[in-house]
TrEMBL record:
InterPro entries: PNGase_A, PNGaseA_N. Keywords: Signal. This is Peptide N-acetyl-beta-D-glucosaminyl asparaginase amidase A N-terminal domain-containing protein. It comes from Triticum aestivum (Wheat). Residues 1-20 form the signal peptide. Residues 56-375 form the Peptide N-acetyl-beta-D-glucosaminyl asparaginase amidase A N-terminal domain.
Length: 546
């Protein structure tokens, strides 16, 4: 939503973080929904909405949790107002175990919120010291109220949690008036688990030593994200790296609103820049990598009933995207500021983008040295017919970093494929992303490698009488190497099918996680607001994985 909107005809602006055109048909006014949708069977209490996810378990031998309420706030007319903030200090229980980030075996951020009345779904973010920890869409409330919670593994931010005093900021972009009455109330809680025996974390694969926020700093009358409004708009920030950096990973937070909320639904050649989007990351103008986003459908998307009570994949807890920057460190270790820039190919108004730069620092030296060995990044390949859009990209960079660990060469490769067929009422789209990182020394010894393969299928059938959305998030990760300490193998298959016809609707979802650190299976179906079947298990069907 453009900030200038507030100065225009006020009523036109009372749309969500999701202004409607050109997809008015893909959004229903919550006023109409409230008038037409049936009430839940028990209207005396708020209805619980949830996103299917696996429970977070601390590693064996952990103590905890030690839970701390970080912030409790209400969010009424927050649009163009400053974020809610709270002073953050590392919890005393962390100090009691020595205060070091490496004492944390699992950190969980819990977001718990309620709302009642009539309101759009809204976008929100949680930042600590300017680094984003969580981005989500709010639940679209019912008259009797909704309640929902998200638990996110934030262990990778351990250094930030331990670093000392800072500011926690929460921004929920909300508008309240006589028609849209829903006020959000939210609590943000940190749960920490600790290792019973102190360990020396493995280099490069443990949580980063330093996290540098790539966001807009406080004070602000808005969220800390950058707003990218078109295909040529670039958000950038200069950052000077510590001279003993030996690994760098940029983690991107991305969400799409207003005219680009349903970018994947665009008819090629007809609607705003067609259905292909990517977020690119440049270091001093050189393409470091990209994110081809999972098409999150927010809780009010298409028809809110599709996402009640089981919300769309990623909608309460948006996925983030990592870009390995290590091979490009050669140019960045001179102590000077270097420009990190984000852009969105084909964007129309508006994308909210920011990032966290995760840095690993050499404990055994004050300066590392680095050099680029090879770099291949052909132009984006894209093709369009009247109904089909395809795109592919590859970025591959190899560079060495000499630290007290030795002279280690890192190869980082990303490949992407996108295929979308739009036949008017139906959209059939698949995004495939592969990311590989391999670090070896001069003798060829593998220190760590991580290969991630993701597939995001999306099928929309929007007939006159019935709308069906089938989408999935599939991810396989294989890790290896001398420093590798986490699960060697992780497979996730999360598939959801939601269907609405008039005032009757239902959802089927299967979530299958199989990994060397455990398994989780959930198969849940709903009809209207009620859960019809719900089976879950933490047993590994195929027996212990190794
Ligand atoms: C937030 O915490 C307070 C204090 O424990 C509690 O009264 C309130 O109900 C909580 N709100 C939510 C949304 O969970
Ligand atoms: C951090 O904040 C706490 C609580 O406000 C305060 O007691 C402490 O002195 C602060 N520490 C530093 C180093 O500023
Ligand atoms: C793109 O957006 C930027 C930032 O709002 C603006 O300065 C620029 O004029 C826009 N370009 C086009 C082509 O609309
Ligand atoms: C590190 O190894 C690469 C080859 O793998 C070599 O080109 C580079 O000069 C070495 N760096 C140092 C500082 O020895
Ligand atoms: C880097 O990895 C990619 C993908 O595995 C491979 O094709 C490429 O040859 C590797 N490059 C170097 C320089 O090792
Ligand atoms: C979607 O397209 C793929 C090929 O890209 C095809 O295999 C699949 O059957 C299609 N799905 C539907 C529901 O038509
Ligand atoms: C999930 O549960 C439904 C209803 O009980 C059943 O029909 C379906 O076969 C199950 N699917 C899987 C993958 O277990």
């Amino acid at each position: 939503m453009a900030a200038s909107c507030i100065h225009l005809v006020f009523l036109l602006c009372l749309v969500p973080a999701t202004v409607a055109s050109p997809h008015r048909n893909l959004r229903k006014s919550p006023l109409d929904v409230a008038a037409a949708a049936p009430s839940p069977a028990d209207a005396s209490r708020p209805t619980t909405f949830f996103e299917v996810d696996r429970p977070l378990r601390p590693p064996p031998g952990s103590s905890g949790p030690c839970s701390t309420l970080l912030l409790s706030s209400s969010f009424a007319f927050t649009f163009t107002k400053p974020p809610a903030t709270a002073a953050y200090s590392p919890p005393p229980c962390l100090a009691a175990v020595g205060g070091r980030a490496s004492a944390i075996s699992l950190a969980v951020l819990e977001w718990r919120a309620t709302c009642r009345g009539v309101q759009f779904d809204r976008i929100f973010g949680v930042w600590l010291g300017g680094a984003e920890l969580l981005r989500g869409s709010t639940a679209e409330p019912l008259q009797n109220g909704v309640v929902w919670s998200v638990s996110k593994d934030i262990t990778r931010y351990a250094s930030l949690l331990a670093a000392g005093n800072s500011t926690l900021a929460v921004f929920v972009e909300n508008l309240v008036n006589s028609q849209y009455t829903g006020v959000y109330y939210a609590n943000v809680t940190l749960h920490l688990y600790f290792r019973r025996t102190p360990t020396t974390p493995p280099p490069a694969v443990a949580p980063a030593d330093l996290i540098v926020p790539m966001s807009r700093g406080l004070p602000l009358n808005d969220g800390l994200w950058y707003k990218i409004q078109n295909a040529t708009d670039v958000a950038s920030k200069g950052v000077a790296l510590p001279s003993n950096t030996y690994r760098a990973v940029l983690e991107l937070y991305v969400s799409f609103h207003g005219d680009d909320e349903f970018w994947w639904k665009n008819q090629p050649g007809a609607d705003a820049n067609g259905p292909f989007r990517e977020v690119t990351v440049r270091v001093d103008g050189v393409l470091a990598g990209a994110a081809w986003p999972f098409p999150v459908i927010f809780t009010g998307g298409i028809d809110p009933l599709l996402w009640q009570p089981i919300t769309g994949i990623g909608s309460f807890n948006l996925p983030t995207y990592d870009v390995e920057v290590t091979p490009l460190l050669g140019k960045m270790l001179d102590g000077k500021a270097h420009l990190l820039a984000f852009a969105v190919t084909n964007a129309v108004d508006v994308w909210y983008v920011d990032a966290n730069l995760h840095l690993w620092l050499d404990p055994g030296s004050t300066a590392t040295a680095a050099g680029l060995v090879s770099y291949v990044a052909p132009e984006l390949a894209a093709a369009t017919t009247s109904s089909r859009t395809t795109a592919s990209r590859e970025v591959s960079a190899t560079g060495w970093v000499k630290s007290s660990y030795g002279n280690i060469t890192t190869n980082a490769t990303q490949t992407f494929d996108f295929d979308s067929t739009n036949a008017g009422e139906t959209v059939n789209q698949t995004t495939v992303a592969h990311a590989g990182v391999a670090a070896t020394d001069v003798a060829g010894v593998l220190y760590y490698s991580v290969q991630t393969h993701q597939r995001f299928p999306l099928f929309l059938d929007s007939g006159a009488d019935q709308v069906t959305v089938t989408h999935g998030l599939e991810e396989t990760t294989v890790a290896a190497g001398r420093w590798s300490s986490g699960p060697r193998y992780q497979l996730l298959r999360n598939t959801q099918r939601s269907s609405v016809a008039g005032a009757s609707w239902g959802i089927r979802q299967t979530y299958r996680y199989e990994a060397t650190d455990g398994c989780y299976l959930r198969n849940v179906t709903s009809s209207g607001y009620s859960i019809v079947t719900d089976q879950s298990s933490e047993a590994c069907v195929k027996g212990p994985l190794r």
